[in-house]
Write a structure and sequence with these properties.
Blueprint (H helix, E strand, L loop, with lengths): L3 H18 L1 H11 L3 H38 L5 H34 L3 H14 L3 H16 L4 H23 L9 H26 L15 H33 L3 H37 L6 H25 L1 H5 L6 H33 L3 H25 L4 H4 L1 H20 L8
Helix pairs in contact: 1-7, 1-10, 2-3, 2-7, 2-8, 2-10, 3-4, 3-5, 3-6, 3-9, 3-10, 4-5, 4-6, 4-9, 5-8, 6-8, 7-8, 9-14, 10-11, 10-13, 11-13, 13-14, 13-16, 14-16
């Protein structure tokens, strides 16, 4: 059984890494928020479309991470490298194919999703530059899976700091034409993010070559393509790939509904979503820890201790979120002013921000137990839970946002319903289902 200290030892580098990593989202939103509402809307729609595709790779990496963590827990270190190498080769192949396909079909796809001509044009400019980040981001998530799986998470902080610093400097230079760089507006924000992801990959490659015992983890025997290994990874990750894609696709439905309400509503939603993502960072870090520690624990023969471990991590998550939510509720104006100098836009964003804060208290528990399901290796069950919840989510968004055309804060109440359902079904599964002997 892991102590609080051991849980935190794994979690805090992931948390710092996610914090630095999400500076890309925050800085893009903050800089473009000072350009105008159209640029803010374009970043929201283009960024979400990018993430929808990116989550396919992220889901694949989670499946790889589960396998790596299980082998690490069993002490079969030489079987870790082949999972990482084969997963990376397959992930890069996906990146090339998806980048080319998205570039070819970007125009008609975005036109189908967006009604406003001005937002369409800005979104197209952003997205056609942003997609080349796939070539680097798809490999970055595999390095993330490797280091989390072996519980050596400190490197994630370092790589993310490198990425964040590069992105902040280039956002400033390329969005506004400072530092001797061309003024590119929304295209500049996209290009800055691509270069930042490339810098993170370079860091991972150098660090891994210099600091990791490649022979211990079996990297030396993993140079050729092994379709059997890729197939074993896909047996687990195919469900997480679909799960994460659907999770982000539902977000896109949400923003499509708000785009039809107007540019102002879309700008409010993007600002609040950016704060939402920052609030979610400690929960995501602890959820990732829950996933990998559950897999390691089962690999070491500690199946009977899994539920107690999840209760402990969930308690930590909830206490942290209470503090984060309290600070957000007390100081909403300074937080929202990071994204815009328009005092009216800040005031109109506060009600939606409060709704998000309420949902975060439930999310702090729901995400831990839900990731515990994936940690057992039963990613098919996790996908089943996610799909059932998202069907209700999508119907709610369509009715409230598109049919009834309710204000942004009412639309955001779907997050409360989403996390209540996730928490309920996750607890039922962990209590009732037969997951203890799942082999991977």
């Amino acid at each position: 059984m892991y102590s609080n200290k051991e849980i935190w030892r794994v979690t805090y580098p992931i948390l710092l890494g996610l914090l630095a990593q999400n500076i890309i989202n925050v800085t893009d939103t903050a800089f473009l928020g000072h350009v105008g509402e159209v640029a803010l809307g374009a970043a929201a729609m283009g960024g979400l479309l990018y993430i929808c595709v990116y989550t396919v790779a992220f889901g694949f990496s989670i499946g790889s991470q589960i396998l790596i963590a299980r082998r690490n827990g069993e002490g079969n270190y030489r079987d870790v490298g082949p999972v990482m190498m084969q997963g990376s080769m397959f992930s890069f192949l996906m990146a090339v194919v998806l980048a080319v396909v998205m570039y070819i079909f970007a125009g008609p796809l975005i036109r189908m999703l967006i009604t406003s001509d001005t937002i369409y044009e800005a979104t197209y400019q952003f997205f056609t530059w942003r997609i080349w980040g796939f070539l680097f981001a798809f490999l970055n998530v595999m390095f993330r899976a490797f280091y989390i799986g072996i519980t050596n998470t400190k490197v994630l902080t370092l790589s993310s700091v490198v990425m964040a610093l590069v992105n902040v400097v280039l956002d400033y230079g390329l969005v506004f034409g400072e530092l001797g760089l061309p003024e590119m507006g929304v295209r500049g924000a996209a290009l800055a993010s691509v270069i930042a992801e490339a810098s993170s990959l370079v860091f991972f490659l150098i660090y891994t070559y210099c600091r990791i015992d490649l022979r211990k983890y079996g990297f030396r025997r993993s140079l050729g393509m092994d379709f059997g290994m890729v197939g074993r990874i896909l047996q687990i990750s195919s469900f997480t790939m679909v799960q994460y894609f659907l999770a982000m696709a539902i977000w896109f439905v949400f923003f499509m509904a708000l785009e039809r309400l107007g540019q102002r509503e879309l700008a409010i939603a993007n600002i609040v979503r950016s704060v939402y993502i920052v609030l979610l960072i400690p929960v995501q870090a602890l959820a990732t820890t829950a996933n990998t520690l559950v897999s390691n624990l089962i690999g070491a023969g500690g199946t009977d201790k899994v539920i107690a471990l999840l209760h402990r991590i969930a308690g930590i998550s909830f206490l942290i979120m209470v503090v984060c939510v309290a600070l957000t509720v007390i100081f909403p104006d300074p937080i929202l002013s990071i994204y815009t100098s328009d005092s009216g836009l800040v005031a109109e964003s506060i009600p939606a921000l409060y709704v998000v804060c309420a949902s975060m208290l439930i999310a702090a528990l729901a995400n831990i137990y839900f990731n515990g399901i994936s940690g057992t290796g039963n990613t098919q069950a996790a996908l089943g839970v996610e799909v059932g919840i998202q069907i209700f989510y999508a119907l709610y968004v369509v009715v409230v946002g598109m049919v009834l055309r309710q204000p942004v804060e009412i639309c955001f109440t779907t997050e409360i319903i989403y996390y209540v359902l996730m928490l309920t079904f996750s607890l039922i599964y962990l209590k009732k289902a037969k997951w203890q002997n799942k082999k991977i």
